[in-house]
Each structure stands twice: as structure tokens, then as C-alpha cells.
Specification:
2 copies of one chain form a homodimer. By secondary structure, the first copy, chain A, is an alpha/beta fold. The first copy, chain A, has 13 helices and 14 strands.
């Protein structure tokens, strides 16, 4: 066994580097899944996650699994075979929502957006008008594959207007920019801890409105997902604490510490830090001659995308050198954007000036 | 936030206490899910898990999730709606297999055994004879709710004879007693890391035979589980390393350290240690006047069950005192055995003489 992993500055699309305090917390001895202290810890985590999502939703939990588990969990509870779903696709993760919704037997109407721009709400309205009764409208808040954010409120309003539930992927936004679940009218949102929340991967914060919980409880056909079943999870997390599975308590320790650090920093300060570091990075990259990929005004402050210049013959080799020689990870393009763009995270502990300067210096050396 | 959890000796049904080395390993900085070092680490983990399962199965991975995730993962890939499944139930976890198999739409024939004893293989044969074509025969190797082990080989032989695949729950056996997946003829097995393997909860080692992989690949109806889809997982873990989800690398660090410690101890030594500590515990408990619950000769060396004496009016209060005054966790009965038995683990780092002596001393004080 390698005694220690090589030091890495994680400025890809996630996981991001975390603080020493979070790492130390992960090393605390585990306690049992029925220990009274565990439920104290869980109450603390759930309160902290409600602050992050800006929601009063009771069912706000750190789901065991990563963001993809959260996505499947929310869709599997809400969608029955034959249900109508409208899904916005402006990148790889929107396409994943559509893929999983189809796997679950839903009749999916895809609202296609151009990769690199948010989706025009009018397109959602057109899709909603064309279907009889849409059960769920889903889209991505922060599209990790393109670096674009979708303003949620207009889309959520349409969902409400047409009697649909509204779900959003907030994997690359939670902890780095406002999600405002209640203000925006989100019925179900999923995220991951390994990006802007500042915890190693393994947990997926999810939040679910009463309306969505009721919809799941009143479905006509039983869902066939057990590990992700909201009602079973609720029986463990709330009230009776009925055994469901052995929860990953060491990841909980890391999350508790991260939430503590977020509270100490202040949510607005944290969002501003992400914004400041993202601007600093994008300005620096443009000075190096790189062109932004995402449409101006809709660029994520958490995940930054630039077009790979024609002068770079082998972009994967450049990223490999960056990793091997400088210990810095950045991401390549996903799906249709493979070979076209780089994805550079300014998330969590890596949304910091020193990290941005380090990356810019290394990029300068390699590009010139 | 509580700065540190109270010190606990985890001698319940899991999680078990882990070594300081494993805790330290968990605090290493994360690396990315496409980092070449991550794949070196994964190769090491998968080789170590193959040794633990005693299998040559290529598809042997640490699934993201806990033992229950592993159970659903294996069942969801193998069972299609309408498939015939025969499930042995001699306790709570056998019943869970049956419950999830039914949720997946399988036609489930339950082979009922008495709680506290293994199931007579003749009962499995009777069930197999009565059905047209059984796709899957599943049972529990180490029943955590009763403290009983089922000898797998005769059951696996029957599965083979009747053309069925054979799956086993090895959550409470892996790392503490031989699973011998290949010798026994197991097609799919799932486990957890938080018991005898010695890692905090969050990973479910699974191993799948070529025959079972082929059965899943050739199913007539697509499965609707995405996060647990073997083919998608294989695309990430093998060959192309196509992004599936952001794997929980800090749990991987813990598992790597645990596997390293297992290798240093030697598998046989480890099994003997579990056996020795279990015997020591059961002898000590019997000296205190407690009666074993599980049938002699079929008692797990990892999870020990005793009947609660009539003299104990409030068993939950006793367990609470044990936790609060001595920092020792033991488990109560699950399901039908609630209030009837205690479940005491001698697993992983808690399969050790000092822990057993400590528990016995505390029990002596409280019972007399």
C-alpha cells in the first residue's frame, strides 16, 4: 500500500480539496447507528443542511451515497411508470436526469438547451402545454459539464402553474451559491458534499417538500427502490429511528465540521468568496488567451469552463502534466464537450486566492 | 458541535470499533475519481477483497453504500419482474432479502427456518422442486439477527443442480470467518466493511461470478436501478473508467489500511482470533447465568446471541446504562426477537481479549 496519496490541489469538477479540520474530523472513532449521540449529530447536520438549502423542509437529510444517488433517490420516489416528466437538458447532467427518469418508466419530454447557455423558460412552458398532466419538471441548477447556471425561479413558477412538482440538481451549487429552495419553490433537490460543501465524497444532501413527500406516499404503484425509499429513510431519521442501514458516521463527522466552518464563515461571505475566486481565475485565464465557454451572465462561480486553444495538440497530456508535475487536477470536457473545454473548479477549500494563483502560474508555464 | 464523540467500545451488531491505523488513514486528503493513483488504490482494494471472499471473480468491488445497498444491488441486477426466486429466511436479514426481491417484482418462495437455527437444505430442495424454473436461490450466510451461520455449500449445490444462481448475504461473516465464495459456489455475495473487515460504515464489498454477470447482461427487461447497475459500475471500475459517480475515496483509504492489517495478521489467524474471543465471551456470559440463543454448532464466531434473563425487567435500560456508564454498546433483538435476546459482537478490532473482559466485567456488575 502507498503510505500516502500524492498531494493534490483538486481544482477539477470535484471532489475538491477539503480543510485540515474536516480531515481530522473524519478520523474520529465511529459510534453506533442507534447511539443517542448519533441522533444529536444528525439533528445538527440536518439543521445545517436546511440552512444551506435555505429551506424549512423537515425531510432534509445527508443521504448515503453521492450526488448521483441523490438524483436517483429523488426521481425514483417521485416518478411512477407512465408518469409524464419534463426534463431540461443543457448538458451532461440534465441528460442523466432524463436517462434515469426513462429507466424508471416515465414518459420523458426533453427540453433541449444549447450546451453553454441556460434554457429559455419559454421552452419549458411549451413542453408543459403540450402534455396532459406533467407530474415532475426537473432541471439542473448548476450544470457541471458546461459551467452554466439556470435561474430556477421562473422554471419553478411554471411547474407550479401547470400543477407539476419541481426538482433540481444542486450538486455544483450547494454551499457555493444560493440555492434558496423555499424561495424558489423547489420540491426536491439533491446535492453532493464533495464540491462546495467541503467534505470528501460519500454523502448526498437531499431536501424534499411536504408536497413531494405526499406525492411519493400516495403513488399508485409501489416503487421498487429500497435503499432510497423516502418512507423507509424517514422511519430511521425521524421518530421511531427504525433500523434502515448502518449510516456512514465518519462522513457525518466530516460534514458536521464543514457545516461548522460554513457557519463560522457566514453563508454570504462564502458565496462571495466563491464569486471572487472564480472572477480572479477567469480574468487570469483570459489574460493567458483562453476564451470562456459559458455564456456571460450565466457562469457558475463554482465551476469555470474555458475553450481549449487550438495551440494545444493533446489536452489530456497537458492535464496529465499538470497533475504529475504540479499536483493540480483540472477536468476535461464531458460527453459532447470532450476535448473541447477544460473545467476548473473554485469550490470549497479551493475557492481561495492562493490556489487560483498556483493554478494560473502553472497554466502560464505550460501554455507558453 | 460536540468536539468529539464519547469513547465507545462497539460490541453491538455493528459498526464495530476500528484500529487507530484505519482512523488515521481516513484523514488522508482526497484525490480525484480519475486520478491514476485512485485506480492503483482500487486495484489494491479489489485484490484484497478477492482474498477476503476467496474468489477469482473479476467483478469484486467496494460498492458505495452499506451492506443493505449491496443486497439491493445484487438482487436488482439479477431479478426481473416475474422471475422465480427462492429465499431462505431464518431471521431478519433473510426476510429483508425476500422483501426486496418482492419489491423488484420477483415471484418469491420463502423457505422458512426457525429463528436460532440454520435451515435444513432439504427444505430448499423441496422449494426448488415445486417451482418451474428458479432464477435465484438466496440465503444469509451469517444471520445478524440470530447469531446463526448457514453452511453454504449444500445450498449452493442445490442451486446448481436446479439451474439457479446462488446469492449470499455475508455482511457478518466477511473478514471474521471463511466465506470461500468460489469453493462454495457463490454467484453473488454482498457484505459491509463496518463489522469484521474493520472499517467505518459506508462501503459494501460485493463479488459477482461471470455466470451472474452474464445473467444480468442478458436479462429480458432492462433494470430500473441506475446507481447499482453492474454494467455501469463495470464501465467505471474496469477498462474505460467512464465516469459513473464520485467514489468515496476516504472510505477507500480506510479499507486499504484494514486490508493491509488483515494481510499482516493472516486470514487464518484472524478467523481464529474471532473464534477465540467469541468462545471466551460465550463462556463468560454462561458463567454469569446467561443462556445462548443460537443452536450449538451453528453459532457465529462474530455475533453472539444470549437470551435475556427473566430477572432483567427493562433490558433497554440495562443497555442504556452499559452505554452511558461504561461506554459499551451491545445490541438488542431485531424484529420478532426484540426484548428476547442481546446481540454482542466480537468483530474486527473488538474481537480482542481486553474488550471481552471489559464487557464481561461490566455485565457482571449490572446483572448481580
Amino acid at each position: 500500500m502507498k503510505p500516502l496519496p500524492s498531494p493534490r490541489l483538486l481544482m477539477g469538477p470535484g471532489p475538491s480539496s477539503v480543510t485540515p479540520g474536516v480531515l481530522q474530523a473524519m478520523a474520529r472513532p465511529p459510534i453506533g447507528y442507534l447511539d443517542p449521540e448519533l441522533f444529536d449529530l444528525l439533528n445538527e447536520l440536518r439543521a445545517g443542511l436546511r440552512s444551506l438549502f435555505a429551506t424549512a423542509n423537515s425531510f432534509t437529510i445527508p443521504l448515503t451515497g453521492t450526488g448521483m444517488a441523490g438524483m436517483e433517490c429523488c426521481l425514483a420516489n417521485l416518478l411512477e411508470p407512465g408518469d409524464e416528466a419534463v426534463v431540461g437538458v443543457m448538458g451532461f447532467f440534465g441528460a442523466r436526469i432524463a436517462e434515469i427518469a426513462k429507466k424508471l418508466g416515465a414518459e420523458v419530454t426533453v427540453v433541449e438547451g444549447e450546451w453553454g447557455r441556460p434554457i429559455d423558460p419559454a421552452l419549458f412552458e411549451k413542453a408543459l402545454q403540450g402534455r396532459k398532466q406533467v407530474k415532475l419538471l426537473a432541471c439542473v441548477h448548476a450544470e457541471t459539464s458546461t459551467g452554466v447556471f439556470q435561474t430556477l425561479q421562473p422554471v419553478a413558477s411554471l411547474a407550479k402553474q401547470y400543477g407539476a412538482l419541481f426538482a433540481a440538481d444542486t450538486v455544483t451549487s450547494l454551499g457555493g451559491m444560493a440555492v434558496d429552495a423555499d424561495i424558489n419553490g423547489i420540491d426536491a433537490a439533491w446535492s453532493g458534499t464533495q464540491k462546495c460543501v467541503g467534505v470528501p465524497p460519500g454523502l448526498s444532501p437531499i431536501t424534499v417538500s411536504e408536497r413531494a413527500m405526499n406525492a411519493a406516499a400516495n403513488r399508485k404503484t409501489p416503487q421498487n427502490h429500497w435503499f432510497f425509499d423516502w418512507q423507509l429513510l424517514k422511519n430511521y431519521f425521524d421518530g421511531a429511528h427504525a433500523y434502515h442501514h448502518t449510516v456512514p458516521v465518519n462522513l457525518y463527522y466530516g460534514l458536521a465540521q464543514a457545516l461548522h466552518e460554513i457557519e463560522a464563515e457566514g453563508m454570504q461571505n462564502r458565496f462571495e468568496r466563491h464569486h471572487r475566486c472564480s472572477s480572479m481565475l477567469m480574468n487570469g485565464l483570459q489574460e493567458l488567451g483562453l476564451q470562456p465557454f459559458a455564456q456571460e451572465g450565466c457562469r457558475l462561480p463554482t465551476l469555470n469552463t474555458v475553450r481549449i486553444p487550438a495551440s494545444v495538440a493533446d489536452e489530456a497530456a497537458l492535464r496529465r502534466r499538470l497533475l504529475e508535475e504540479y499536483g493540480i487536477e483540472i477536468g476535461g470536457g464531458l460527453g459532447a464537450l470532450k476535448g473541447q473545454i477544460w473545467r476548473i473548479g473554485t469550490m470549497g477549500a479551493c475557492a481561495d486566492e492562493r490556489s487560483v494563483l498556483t493554478l494560473l502560474a502553472a497554466m502560464r508555464t505550460m501554455l507558453h
